[in-house]
Write a structure and sequence with these properties.
By secondary structure, this protein is α/β, with parallel strands linked by helices. Helix 1 crosses helix 2 and helix 3 crosses helix 7.
């Protein structure tokens, strides 16, 4: 079995593949303070609770945007799963042309998403990934990673507003009853949700104009469904796109 791990600043998403089938996946909070042993024990417990035999894991691949976590996970997988993981960007490349000014500055997760998106569509693709930051990645119809946009995630925006404005409350990310809020909570929720949708629409529209021709749009990340319910911008929503991309990179570049 193949263990795939995508480490983000806020969440870590893990999955286990048997051939091309994703048999189990988990979305966890990224814990910067855990030791290698703590990560290993916790993950082995997840396997046991899911009825999976950790001893059947014979390969692993990681994408990570938190450098201190990378070393810990490499050590953990070697100790608790008896295989040597491959790390996207460090010892394995995604296998697509990267036209960024400096390809090494593109996050591994963004390139892995591009690989998975290219398998879904025969057109140019825009991947919108809702994470700690919201990233917009443009992939040409020729399969080239062109670049994209990065903006603060909606959670960061909400928390920054709460910290900077002393009289405004911290609110739950939820759809308000109406766009015209009648109390501070609903007013903030309205501004966050509909203001953010406006931002997404503007970036996607301008990217489509620059790409030209048919363009498909994929939403991924933990909050993808939250926004997809409120807009028709996306052709598909796949919150496990990165895991599939990791599997594809491993199959195409290692097997």
């Amino acid at each position: 079995m193949l263990l795939v791990i995508d480490v983000g600043n806020t969440n870590t998403v893990l999955g286990v593949y048997r051939e091309e089938q994703l048999v189990r996946h988990w979305r966890l909070q990224t814990h910067h303070g855990r030791t290698s042993d703590e990560h290993g024990i916790f993950l082995r417990q997840l396997f046991e609770l899911s009825g999976l035999d950790a001893g059947q894991v014979d390969s692993a691949i990681i994408s990570c945007v938190v450098p201190p976590m990378e070393r810990l996970l490499i050590e953990m997988i070697g100790d608790y799963f008896a295989c040597e993981p491959r790390v996207v960007g460090a010892d394995i490349e995604p296998g697509i042309p990267v036209l960024y000014d400096d390809p090494s500055q593109v996050g591994a997760d963004r390139l892995v998403n591009a690989v998975a998106a290219l398998q879904k569509f025969d057109t140019a693709v825009i991947v919108v990934d809702f994470g700690t930051a919201t990233t917009f990645d443009a992939i040409s119809a020729k399969g080239e990673y062109l670049g994209g946009s990065i903006c603060p995630g909606i959670t960061i925006s909400s928390e920054s507003l709460f910290r900077a404005a002393s009289k405004l409350p911290k609110v739950e990310l939820a759809k308000p009853p109406e766009v015209i809020g009648r109390n501070p909570v609903h007013s903030i929720q309205s501004g966050l949700l509909y203001g953010y949708i406006g931002q997404i629409r503007e970036v996607v529209t301008r990217m489509k104009q620059q790409l030209g021709g048919p363009v498909s749009v994929v939403a991924t990340g933990g909050l993808a469904g939250f926004f997809a319910d409120e807009t028709d911008l996306f052709d598909t929503v796949d919150d496990l796109l990165t895991l599939e991309g990791l599997r594809l990179v491993y199959d195409q570049q290692v097997r």
